[in-house]
Amino acid sequence: MELWAGLGQAATVAQLVGVDAGGLITLITQAALTARQNKKACEQLSRRVYMIADLLPHLQQPELMRRPEFQRPLAGLGHTLREAHDLVMLCQRKSRFYRFLNARSLADKLRDIQSRIDSYLVLVPAISYIALTHNLNRIDSLRQNHTILPPPASTSSHSHAVPASAWEGVARFTLAEIAAASNSYAFFTKVGKGTSGTVYRGRLHDGRDVAIKRISKSARDREMVLRTELTVTPHPRHSHLVRLLGWCAEEDERLLVTEYMSNGSLHDHLHGRKPPSSPVTASWKTRVEVLLGASRAIKYLHHSFVPSVIHCNIKSSNILLNAGWTPRLSDLGFSVRHEAGVEEHHYQPQVVGKGGYMDPEYCRTGRLTPATDVYSFGVVMLEVLTGKPPIIATRGEEEQGEVQTDLVHFALPLIEAGELDKLLDGRPEPQPTALQIEALQWVANTAVVCLHRRSILRPRISDVVANLEIALRLASS
Ligand SMILES: Nc1ncnc2c1ncn2[C@@H]1O[C@H](COP(=O)(O)OP(=O)(O)OP(=O)(O)O)[C@@H](O)[C@H]1O
């Protein structure tokens, strides 16, 4: 029977309640349809157990549910369901004599069982709510109090010997080594600042140029940022991901060392003060190449790990360019692992707090899925096409003056109306060729579907990669 399909997946619930609750509820609703006495009460009871069926799947998280404080109040539910089933079966008896004798006591018993079922209708959501709060508190205290778990084989930079572990090539640096590499964070080594810290350029004793992110002491999530970078994706290796070289957690300093990307970020080239001669500013082909590279990195995160990795902070300032203009995605400090099919709710301040890149469905539901990254990447595609930042100032009504609009609301209607030409950034080739226009139309159409308000209707990142490959072939012809 359809009604039980949802709960069928939640085997843990049946174990919790102590009986095959799913099977029993199905039997009760079926039997209620053919009751010969107390028909109305049976129907009411069937409606109530149906509601229980809807609620039980919320009691997931088996480890939590096994705790006595959650298990105790549910202990009687299995028994109550069994009794409800027996009562409804009695109401099917044919014998007139039997029906006459039992009608009244059956009605009383049905009333009693109904009120017991009612109490579970209150209890189940309450338990689910308490479990959720318990979980949120646990996550919060983990974030605030956890000290960094050092990687199993931490190495100093003096012994760049590669440990045969998941930490291959990721070194643990001392504070003295970091200070030496960055001239003690001298002002002239500063390359940028984000919400979680300041980035300095440094040189290691072996001559490698590195970026050193000094996670700010006031950053609420500083332990989490470091921990996540180190543990969420054990040694991710991809030609379009900025490589993590090491870390330092000494005294009250938390630092990350990555390869240095000398050509800055996509954001700098689109919205900053980079020279117009920058190929990213001046060439449509390079722009599509940058998008394709970044999308391949996201595809790697979404599809190469089990559970997959959601980046959670896709934006143009996290797409960096190395000396050869190869794009690499950076900043895994807010990423999370995501089990397909498991509905998880995460509070990711980085995603919620970033204007213009926010997935509206995530903001509404708190449900994080790989489609959240796809949405943010759709915004980056619009930035590349228009040369405009995700939040733009437009002219409002006369008395309003300038008003802030997000790029999505500004650009989507024009693309959908077939007026891409009105949007295109004027800095690359002023007269794109017909094939280039076609390439940009592919990018624009892909952006439109990535930006669908409903995450389920957005493409997977692998489809986005495929479309950008086509766009790049067209742009290169
Ligand atoms: N590996 C790197 N090589 C060169 N420059 C870098 C590197 N990493 C970061 N930067 C520069 O430092 C700036 C700040 O980076 P950071 O990751 O701290 O913040 P963000 O991504 O701009 O913002 P937020 O932290 O709020 O997400 C970047 O915009 C970039 O210009």
From TrEMBL:
Q: Where are the transmembrane segments?
A: none
Query: Please, one GO biological process term?
Result: cell surface receptor signaling pathway
Which keywords does this Swiss-Prot/TrEMBL entry list? ATP-binding, Nucleotide-binding
Q: Which InterPro entries match?
A: Adaptor_Cbl_N_dom_sf, Kinase-like_dom_sf, MCAfunc, MLKL-like_MCAfunc, Prot_kinase_dom, Protein_kinase_ATP_BS
What Pfam families has UniProt attached to this entry? MCAfunc, Pkinase
Which Gene3D superfamilies does the UniProt entry name for this protein? Adaptor protein Cbl, N-terminal domain (1.20.930.20), Phosphorylase Kinase, domain 1 (3.30.200.20), Transferase(Phosphotransferase) domain 1 (1.10.510.10)
* Keyword Ligase applies: no
Task: Provide a Gene Ontology MF annotation, just one.
Answer: protein kinase activity
- Which positions are annotated as binding ATP? 213
Tell me where in this chain the Protein kinase domain is found.
185-443
Q: What protein name does the entry list?
A: Protein kinase domain-containing protein
Organism (species): Hordeum vulgare subsp. vulgare (Domesticated barley)
Q: Which gene name belongs to this protein?
A: LOC123398950
